[in-house]
Amino acid sequence: TFMVATSTSTSEGWSSRSAFILAAIGAAVGLGNIWRFPTLAGESGGGAFVIFYIGCVFLLGLPLVLSEIFIGRAGQTDAVGSIRKVARDSNVSQAWSIFGGIGALAAFLILSFYSVVAGWVLYYAGVFGADLIQAIGAGDPFRSALAGESQAMIEGRMGDLFGNVGLLLAMHFCFMGATLFIVARGVHSGIEAAATILMPMFFVLLVGITIYGAIVGDLTDTLAFLFTPDWSKLTPAVMNSALGQALFSLSLGVAGLITYGSYIKGSDGLGGTAALIAVADTGVALLAGLMIFPVVFAVGLDPAAGPTLVFQSLPFAFQSMPAGALIGFLFFILILVAAVTSSISLLEVPTAWGIGELGWKRGTSATVFGVGAFLIGIFCLLGYNVLADVHPLGFWPLFADLDILDTVDGFTGKVMLPLGALLTSLFVGWRADRRMVQQVTGLSAGMFALWRFLIAWLCPIAVTIILVTGLFPSIL
Ligand code: PFF
After folding, report:
1. Could you tell me how far CA 331 lies from the centroid of its own chain?
2. CA-closest residue to ligand 1 atom 9
3. Ligand 1 atom having least distance to the Cα of 338
4. Nearest-5° angle of CA 219, CA 223, CA 229?
5. Tens of pLDDT along the chain (476 residues)?
6. How far does residue 351's CA lie from ligand 1's centre (Å)?
7. Which of 86, 179, 247, 296 falls 20 to 30 Å from 222 in CA-CA distance?
């Protein structure tokens, strides 16, 4: 038998249901939505990828979102401790708590390169900010961006940045510093306060820039590109990356939602909350596509440019757009805002682990993991210059040619996230006490049956397929 905890073992908590929802949406919406999703959709040929992705989110992602929140809500402490508590109350082995540890490690590793990429965004925000100031100084605040620069100059900025270790370091330092500052202040006055200020700002910017893109850009081509499926483009590799992207975008497999869920004190139904998070995250990814591609198509650029789409193609496109200087600046601020509310959730996972399992103070724990991720991030950014010849997993064909950042990204995304998601679905689907799950999640009998089918059967099978085909692409 079990008790749903109404008192708590962690003293920290969200001040309301909507605070949790904002923070969780903030965690989900990030570089994954605005940088990675359009990049992948563009590279994978659009419509078929997008439709398959949406299927992954609702059939696999949503049940996992609910599962992680359930574990946290029931456990009321860091991920490892929460899984241990659910296991104990269900009379199954507490060794399951290992996947909380894998998650915390994955979150820590993702944070290291996430901060480096966010640092690039910070740099571009600076470039457009300076350009905007110049435009205002010249009495023409609504001029297009980067007036007088050639395409080669604009696109060359990224290479210049990558060659400039000092600049890369400074940007990485600022971003990680901001993340650490917020997390050290705690759940209520740090994470919740940041989400409450930044998320409304994010949505205003997102809607504003999307409307702008629809007006000045090429919306017809964009809609055709994003929503007309060419099923021949849906190869196993594309399905694999769609599934992986769904996990990454919903922050699954790293115990992030277990950790955030542990700060829920009330007993509201969790099903609706989980659905809201999945819908919001997917909506933002689609809006990001509707924001970026009209501009890209209007200038006749290649939607399949890859990771440089946002950093090279878009700045060039803003050069021929009305008010490009202003919109370009706001666009990079938008990505930055999204990235901060995600990076704080990444740092919170190991931080909560240090507090709950090692008995550290919050400030100590956040500093240890924030500084640690900063140091690993330094290796990631050196991989573009000084350490360009280093391929950390060179012995493993799948990762052989990757630079340091892509190796950390690839290993966490293709190995650790699917593994975390697989173990989560097996644990919640098969080991956790069913009455406890139904009581804590507050699902109706019908929804519970549907959710159980998805989490116990579809998730483990589909995620195993991602894991295996991701690791051994040659079997396809
Ligand atoms: N979901 C974030 C994004 O899409 O950018 C990335 C992320 C954040 C993954 C937090 C995992 C996590 F715990």
Report:
1. 18
2. 251
3. 5
4. 160
5. 444 544 444 579 999 999 999 999 999 999 999 989 999 999 898 999 999 999 999 999 999 999 999 999 999 999 999 999 999 999 999 999 999 999 999 999 999 999 999 999 999 999 999 999 999 999 999 999 999 899 999 999 999 999 999 999 999 999 999 999 999 999 999 999 999 999 999 999 999 999 998 888 889 999 999 999 999 999 888 888 899 999 999 999 999 999 999 999 987 789 999 999 999 999 999 999 998 998 888 888 899 988 888 998 899 999 988 999 999 999 999 999 999 999 999 999 999 999 999 999 999 999 999 999 999 999 999 999 999 999 999 998 889 889 999 999 999 998 999 999 999 999 999 999 999 999 999 999 999 999 999 999 999 999 999 889 888 878 77
6. 16
7. 247
What's this model's pTM, rounded to 2 decimal places? 0.95
Backbone region of residue 143 per phi and psi (left: phi > 0; alpha: psi in -120 to 50; beta: other values): beta
Atom nearest to 107 CA in ligand 1: 13
Q: How far apart are the first and last CA of the chain?
A: 46
Substitution site in 110, 284, 351, 369 for ligand 1 pocket (most atoms within 8 Å of beta carbon): 110
Domain ranges within the chain, ordered by starting residue? 17-475
Write down the CATH number for the domain with range 17-475: 1.10.4160
Judge if the beta carbon of residue 117 lies within 6 A of ligand 1.
no
32 Cβ closer than 6 Å to some ligand 1 atom: yes
ipTM for this model: 0.98
